[in-house]
Give the backbone structure.
Amino acid sequence: MNSEKDEKNTNGRREFFKGITGVTGAAAMVAALSQMGVPVLNAAQGDQVKQDTIGGATWMAPQQTQDSKPVASPDLSTAAKPDQAGVKLPTTPEGQAISPFFRNPPPWPKGTVGNKYDYLFSTRLKESSLMPEVIPGPQAYFRGHSDLPGAKINMGWQIFTQAIKLEMESHHHSVDEYQFYLGATFPDLVGSFDAEIEVFIGPKYEQHIINRATVLYLPAGLIHNPCDFRRVSKPVFFSSLHMAPFCNSVFQTMGYRTFIEGNKID
């Protein structure tokens, strides 16, 4: 993906957020993508929608049609007004900040004690780095089904600190993949990107240079790579989301390969 051709990838980005909304909870990553103009808060699909602004963010609410019941619009009368510094957040009596995106929330639940849903949590994310000279360890990986039985995605988070020819041949997957190239300096994961990454896409090896924070959408079956992190002036926060229970690829010379489990550090 050439960061100079962002407009061509709008549809792919929209499909990405339809697929993973509610799956990944990386708040910093979402904030960074929001800075890039990616619509992370679109809550409705369909032809007839109403646009409202609450807390400085745009929300989309479905409107009544012949086949649907009316949906009440949120009360905007007390909506926080954004300024140059962002939204002024309300607080609890103890001083804790409160999200500005809810106008009339119900009482906070007292909750119950139990372990019925313990199986939905995975905390074994830490793994040793296979290339510590370039990717200082530990790194974080969610290996899908092997980490959380029933999971249908696998995902990794890595910090690249040096240039490296990362992928030496092309491959493709049987499912969609999404790659995130961000800066690694908090809180500005977009503005802190300072690197140059060469990727090749398609059977004719179309060359693309990533030189700004980028989301790369790779549909199932699309040949991609080699990949060269040829300049890393500042650390790069790289993440790959693979829409399958485990990582699997068909390589140019090595054929079909899977990666199911990593070396976890407890």
Observations:
- The chain has two domains: 3-62, 119-259.
- The two ends are 36 Å apart (CA to CA).
- The chain has a mean pLDDT of 80.
